[in-house]
Design a protein that fits this description.
alpha/beta, 4 helices, 33% helix
Length: 111
């Protein structure tokens, strides 16, 4: 399902970023990335953890052009991981309410 959604987005010449929790799962997603490395999330997470992804990161221009972020295996993620990514996206992309959650997996739709 994730690959189908990503393929449709890419067919429209847009960027779809696919993220997973564990390394082996990246092999199952076209262009899959481990979310810890994508957003520079600390491995030992706590309530006040933040993503270390910055405006001068190589990922920043990619995120600016990304239309869909598909986060597979999100039920296995800790709540603080999700919060850290949410805060990172809102800060970097300077949005407050343009991030949408699709219950299929955890997919951000960025306008």
């Amino acid at each position: 399902m994730c690959n189908t959604i990503a393929a449709e987005v890419r067919r429209r010449d847009q960027i779809a970023l696919c993220m997973v929790l564990f390394g082996i799962a990246t092999l199952l997603l076209d262009g899959g990335r481990i979310f810890y490395s994508c957003f520079k999330i600390p491995l030992s997470i706590h309530k006040d953890s933040v993503a270390r992804l910055k405006h001068n990161s190589y990922m920043f221009p990619v995120l600016q052009q990304t239309k869909v972020i598909i986060w597979d295996e999100v039920p296995m993620q800790h709540k603080y991981d999700i919060d850290a990514v949410d805060q990172c996206l809102r800060h970097l992309l300077e949005v407050s309410n343009h991030l949408y959650l699709i219950a299929l997996e955890l997919t951000y739709y960025l306008e």
